[in-house]
Amino acid sequence: MSEEKEGEMIELGTKDFIKGKPFRVTDDDLEKRWGSPFRCQLCGHWFKAGDEGRWVYANFKDSPFKGGDFFVCGGCDGEDVLERAGKIREESKRTHWWLWHMVDVERENARHR
Length: 113
Known about the structure:
It is built from four helices and three strands. 36% of the residues lie in helices and 10% in strands.
């Protein structure tokens, strides 16, 4: 990693974190509960101390990824991360349709509780 990029790293959980700036994972970060598995949404890598990552804001109207915000590792990050995540999600809907059907049914049931 270049010194320039290293200087851009922020602390996970700060205001810069929600702006989608890269962070370096610490042992303290691993102890926190982030509401979902603390891993890369694209490759599945489980973060460990010292890893580079970024939180990707994806909850906007025209987002190519219709699955909420997510974490991405330094190896998978890039300008086209939302498009790649969207393609992975759509492919999983085709190949794992039964799982997505169960998620849809559970969401519908939750609305009627």
